Amino acid sequence: MINTFFRSGTLDTPAAFLASLLIGIAFGVALEQAGFGSSRRLSGIFYFRDMAVLKVMFTAVIVAMLGITYAKTFGWVTMENVYFMPTLYAAQIVGGLVFGVGFVMSGWCPGTGAVGLASGKIDALVFLLGAIGGSMLYNEVYPILAPITQGDRGVIFAYDSLGITEASFAFFLTLIAVVCFWGAEYIEKKRYGKGDQWGSPFLKAFSVVLFVAAFGLFALVGQSKVTTASAPVTAAQQEGKLLAGLQAGLDHFEPQELADRLLGGDPSIMLVDIRTPAEFINFHIRSAVNVQVADLPVALAPYKNQGLLVLYSNGMTHPAQARDSLFRLGFSNVYLLTDGLEGFIKTCLQPVSLRSEPVPLVLAAKINAWRAFFLAPVTPVGETASKAKLSKALDLSSLTIPGLVTYRE
Amino acid sequence: MNPYLAGVLLGLTLLASYLILGAGLGASSGIARVGAYFELVLTPARTLASKYFGSWGEQPLKYYLVFMLAGVFFGGLISALLSGRCEFGVERGAKCAPKKRLLFALAGGILAGFASRLANGCTSGQALSGSAVLLTGSLLFLVCLFAGGYSAAWFVRRQWDD
To answer: What is the pTM of this model?
Structure first.
């Protein structure tokens, strides 16, 4: 099975950057070879004079779709290996309409604009500068637009929306694509007297290959019994699962276990501090990231059902509410730190000498190891893009946690 | 190149992106992060305090999609040079003044840049990558993109009239 950079949480490493650069080069070559270094050609689809955009994009969608579905059927990848964007109806409908207007006006889109710039097109340079400006504009009005960019419905697949299996949806989409290809050739033939590929042996063979590949999915999915389409879960079932989990205490993460796993450098844990930035800067558990409650669905979207997300605040109320809300948004990997930060400090970081009850030797050694790890000054870590805010240097002299006595050697 | 073969090449690239990176292709994120970088250089405190750009931290360019965008440029350059399609100029209809064409390119760029942030993706991230994994929202974006494009096409047709 393939372990993707996303799955291993290493999308922000130099290796992933290099892989992205290489994939980007292949992407740029494909776009340029398709003739998309030309805004005239790109805008052609809107005037039915050059249907290349439809042919190239629909072919790419079908090839990638069939490839991924086959990879899943053969067990090379699982759904957990891939980041899927959440569906936000209002943002995607309005965004799509406005984007389409921008596309036809400029004759470019962001990826093809970069190829156009490489091809020496000045209009592509102007488009890219405009797109940078449009992004800055978005940043300015984001607080006003935030409501429609939230209300996250989670990841929704079209075949689930329509209540059919993934294989049958893929098959229908392939059929539609083949019909569109012939339609596009027919439009060009009508207009210019000859189609690029109308009735050519190539297009006939290509259509048959796509058709067979899509049909093959049916046979495979039927035999291997790998159902990739998840059954729609009703709200009542969802709520029942949540309550059952609560009853079993499955949503709690014990402070000692957390301390041990962080000390061991467990990469599967993402610790999220939901207190205010001021409190976070003052003190936080080492390796925690600071995310405000309202930002949790967006900030944690890349980690949905990937590894363990452990939320903490000073106490338990806010993390519990946040955890329930995230669960309803489809997160099944969110845990609360039992007794919050206060409990963590009391259980793991309070010096042995200050404890009222006797401490066994083994635990005392552990407490000392935890204290050395969690109270050590940490060098400032560069803020990475994927995580909201990484720990700032932990300054012992500024610590004002009541009951916490620090020592230095 | 035969557009269907170029499409197959693009589809295989997208497939590789999903199987290696675990995420689809993207271009507009890289552009937005360049914008965030410019703002950080000019007004660091204000940018870090802003809700959207601020969430990308102090080094917005250290992001995989920024590297992908750089790759798209270099890939396009290599291919255009090898195919002899590299030439400077403003692409437009013969009767359209270059200034008018550039104005359309700028206005379209602003709209596309803004809309791609709103929809969290552009033709690459949503229409192509999202549709290939059959996400409802991405397919909806694709349909709306063409609806918006076709309804505005008539008004901006003059820039292509030869």
So the answer is: 0.70
